[in-house]
Design a protein that fits this description.
40 residues; mainly alpha; single chain
């Protein structure tokens, strides 16, 4: 079973969205924090 299917079923798609948010939100926060550290 591949990790990223072209058309994942609904529960898997929701899980993928949550996983993306878990990775994405800290990354965005880190970028904002680094900008603040440089220009603050």
């Amino acid at each position: 079973m591949p990790v990223l299917e072209p058309n994942p079923p609904k529960p898997q798609k929701k899980l993928l969205l949550v996983f993306g948010l878990m990775l994405g939100v800290p990354a965005v926060v880190a970028v904002i924090a680094s900008f603040a550290a440089h220009y603050g």
